[in-house]
Structure to design on (116 residues):
């Protein structure tokens, strides 16, 4: 009866390996999705350009829910720091943008036109 202990050892080793493998891969798989969801600096919101005020560095956007600001869909004015952000835009453009709260106003930090 030398076979049984050997088999048991092999089984135990196999189970151990499988367990280690599961432990190693389990936390790794949900993490990329979680990081993506929590990374608010990259969160983009869909919007439509309603008005552009280059002189005052303001743009009016009709926007969808802004998740990183907890803001529901609405039409409102955003500020920009750099007129270059507004340069490629025109009224009616569909965009995806990122906005952040700065000095009590909402600052548009990134805007990209949607692909036609
Ligand atoms: Cu708003």
């Amino acid at each position: 009866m030398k076979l049984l202990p050997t088999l048991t050892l092999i089984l135990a080793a196999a189970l151990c390996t499988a367990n280690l493998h599961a432990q190693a891969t389990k936390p790794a798989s949900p993490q990329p999705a979680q990081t993506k969801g929590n990374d608010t600096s990259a969160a983009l919101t869909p919007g439509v350009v309603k008005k552009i005020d280059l002189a005052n560095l303001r743009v009016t956007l009709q926007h969808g829910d802004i998740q990183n600001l907890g803001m529901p869909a609405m039409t409102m004015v955003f500020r920009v720091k750099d007129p270059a952000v507004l340069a490629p835009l025109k009224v009616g453009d569909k965009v995806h943008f990122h906005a952040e709260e700065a000095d009590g106003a909402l600052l548009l930090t990134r805007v990209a036109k949607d692909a036609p």
